[in-house]
Amino acid sequence: MAKHLALISRHPWKNIVIALFLLVAFFLPHCCFADNYDYTYELLEHPGGSTNYRLTVSVTSSLYEYYRSKDHNIYSYDFAKFVTPDPLKPVADDLWSIYSNDEDFANGVLMIVHQIPYVESGPQKYPVETIVENEGDCDLFSFIAASIMKAGGLDVVLLLYQTQDHMNVGVYLSEEPNDARSAVYYYTHDGKRYYVAECTGDDWRHGWRVGECPDLLQEASARIITLEDCEQSSPGQVSSSYGALDASSLSLAVSTRFVIARSAVTLSGSISPALSGKNVTLYVSSSGSPLSVLVTVVTDSDGRYSYMWRPSSAGIYSMRASWSGDTDYAGADSNICTLIVIPLEWLMMGVTVIVLLVVFLVVTLATRRKPPEELEAFEEWEVVDYPEYF
Asked: What's the pTM?
């Protein structure tokens, strides 16, 4: 007890921090998360065709924030980490529904990136970021194109032209390109021909096709960056459809707003309309830290999910749930919930303070009572009348 008293007396600021910590946490609202980011891209059934398709791509805010919080630095030409096939697989699946060969598929991908406005970019960005921000330059467009092509099963590489400060994609095809309007250009790696796929340009109907190459690059040497080290999985995917996607909603609730470290708390919610067998990703951030994935759970037959979590360290945690959507419904993010995890040491200190206060109160009351002998002596005192003087 003396030890705890010493701690409290030497660190009075701790009590103030605890009080402010709990006061702020109590008034933190269960706020709502932002809406999805939706973008539409035009497609033709093949280069030079006349049949138009309109592809709608929807990105949840949580997926966008997840990629924004990732490392964006380049270490020894590790551009491959910015190629993310998994979150863009729904786009690749929709492209395969209208294209019948790998050349048309690759040209369809180029039609998409040719519709994103060209703006010089500083740091590298992940494809989800570029889609949401709807702008980028040659390397960012190349990351998107390589991601969709790889998600569609194509063998692709990044082509880095260091002298020209440029990047595009090389794609291996089962046959030499038939729709190229000029000589066909390619780079050879491991005995394969990777045909040039130029990702810049704002004329999606008549833009660069696979095998065509800008004049400046036709004699240029390129560093070939293979994609064995690209991202292998993602916590979520974009939603993609040729028709309008129906809206959905997702809820999240916590069993308590205050918990002792390593104690259990239940996170639960549901998708509306009730959809079974859907992956729901639970994200968490602590005291301003980057968004990270806590766990992915699957909804039951009623569209509900539940997860028991035991946070190991103290802090103020913000939690949200997200699902990626499907061919019928756009994905959705839940409301944001706040959880206060209190260290066990604070609980022990609080109990110690309460015990000390009780002891202090008992001792104070005991010392304020007069002994019986003093009371008897007081009763025997004589009352003396003194004369009044005028």
From this structure: 0.80
